[in-house]
Amino acid sequence: MQPLTKALTGALTAGVLAVGALVVGPGVADAGTPDRLSAGPSATPAGRIDWKPCPEHPTAECGTLRLPVDWANPAGEKFDMAVARRKATDPDRRIGALLVNPGGPGDPGVGFALTRAPAQFSKELQAKFDIVGFDPRGVGLSQPVKCSTELLGRAASPYPRNQAEFDRLAAYNRELREDCRRHSGPIVDHADTLGVVRDMEALRRALGEKKLNYFGHSYGTLIGEQYAELYGDRIRAMALTANIDHSLGTRDFMVSSAAAAEDSFHQFVKWCERSPSCALHGRDVTAVWDRLLARADRGEIQDPENPGQTLSGNDISFFAFRYKFYGPDYDELADHVAALEAQTGRSPRAEPEPSTSGASAAEDAEQRTTAQPFAAVFCQDWRIRPKDHKEFARLTAAELRAAPHMRGSPRVHAAMAGCVGWPDEVNNPQHRLRITGAPEILMLHSRHDPANNHAWATNVHRQTRDTTVLLTYEGAGHSVYGRSDCTRGAVDDYLMALKVPLDGSSCPAAGPGA
User: Fold this and answer.
1) CA 94 → CA 59, 89, 125, 127, 276, distances in Å?
2) How far apart are alpha carbons 282 and 289 in whole angstroms?
3) Residue pLDDT, tens place only, 269-326
4) What does 393-450 look like in DSSP terms, one character per residue?
5) Which end of the chain is more exposed for a tag (fewer CB within 10 A), N or C?
6) How far apart are CA 292 and CA 310, in angstroms?
7) Could you tell me the pTM of the whole model?
């Protein structure tokens, strides 16, 4: 986990984000179906994957698939997409390959297939499907977008207070974008989800699968949704959890994200009120929280992981959102809040240590890079470009009204800030989802998802009512599949037997969110 004092600023350029929109209506961003949606790799001969045992997971197979960086120029520069496969444990009952994506943008699918999928998916599902993970272009082992570690370390604040600071944020983002392109090549300009969709179709062909089976979570649902737009007739089954709605403009996007974070805070408060195990049980949790954030903003709360450094209120809300609401891990959050509240006095910030390395070390530091694919994906999937500080401030104020206790949506605010200064042209702009020719697609979504507003799922379902079936998990947290026998069974029955639950049905809450 990154140090709390750097968490919010770091979210500008790193991390796993779940994003989307609210409800179709006035203000919907709809650029129409992008021209790039019309072309695909169907005329390209299927590539070949040279499978070999994975170095650290010899029971699985790893390989690469060579693909165009720009599908509009398939004869141009290529990159190698990393792929991993765990074969069906019962070959006699094998149904096919199940392609998986765990989200992000920026979460590697290869690592998911090798380390997380065996524990997450049921034994019966693993018996009948090859589990195939791939690192999307620009991510993981698929020609990752890399940027200067030194430049990333001096990220501009995502909360500019005036036009001058807004201009500095824009200048920093432009400098970072050019730096990432210098270290990574043209993949930076083609890391959007439409490119990933075409890569996934090429992967289906390379695997020799007549029809696609796909499980996508969070940002991985956008890959599934847009695959269904381009290649709906090539789908056998598609299960999407924690769904993304890629249809709204900036303000509704920001406000709906903030509302989801605020709802999760209130779910935590309600749990604390009814749970004796809560370290804050019997107290006014909202008042405790608000006082704590105010003290943090005055520099009175020390970062327990970094003695001598202090936490801001935004640092604390970000930590709760990203590391405790996703679970949810309410007990740990209550303990954390209680420990911070118990601090007394002002904790002076530590002075930065003077450099003793000299110019040569500084030049060496410039050569060091860190993988940072987030902005390259997000800022080409979303037309989110506040033009000046006045517009930025209006959006921030709307966030705060929607989430006064959570200070808006920490991660999505940082994502918006990270696109300031990027070119106006967007490879994959928001539009209403248009799916034709696809079989029934199963959607699952938590009622109290902290990152992806439940309204996003209902809106995607509204746009695709003839194609999708929506099942709601009535509890809290970001993940859905493994919540209960009900959620797991619904996905397994659908993927294995194409048994679709009743549209609009639900699974009861379980665990801390119940």
Assistant:
1) 17, 8, 10, 7, 48
2) 14
3) 999 999 999 999 999 999 999 999 999 999 999 999 998 899 999 999 999 999 999 9
4) HHHHHHHHHH-TTTTS-HHHHHHHHHHTTS-S--SS--------S---EEEEEEEE-S
5) N
6) 13
7) 0.90
